[in-house]
Amino acid sequence: LDCILSDKKKYKKKAIQKSLVLKTWQGTLLQESSLPEDWTRENGVLVGIIK
Questions:
Q1: Sequence-distant (≥ 6) Cβ neighbours of residue 32 within 8 angstroms
Q2: pLDDT score of 50
Q3: With the CA atoms of 38, 42, 47 and 49 taken in that order, what torsion angle do they form, in degrees rounded to the nearest 10?
Q4: What predicted TM-score, i.e. pTM, was given to this entire model?
Q5: What is the dihedral of CA 30, 43, 25, 47, to 10 degrees?
Q6: How far apart are CA 34 and CA 45, in angstroms?
Q7: Can you tell me the distance from the alpha carbon of 20 to that of 25, in angstroms, rounded to the nearest whole number?
């Protein structure tokens, strides 16, 4: 949801900043060092299903 709400094309002035999304999740993601610098448009990053 955070990534969707950062879409400036769709939400224009109401969109949250990507930097806020990145800072919010920093330090909580699995294998964070292997993610691209801007992972907000990558599928599956915030979906953590571990069996």
A1: 26
A2: 58
A3: -110
A4: 0.67
A5: -60
A6: 11
A7: 9
**pLDDT at residue number 48:** 65
pLDDT digits (tens, 9 = 90+) for 1-51: 667 777 788 888 888 888 898 898 899 888 889 988 888 888 788 776 555
What is the phi/psi pair of residue 5, to 5°?
A: -70, -10
Q: Which among 16, 7, 51, 44 has a CA at the least distance from the CA of 29? A: 44
Contact 17, 6 (CB under 8 A): yes
Token output for 10: 């769709």
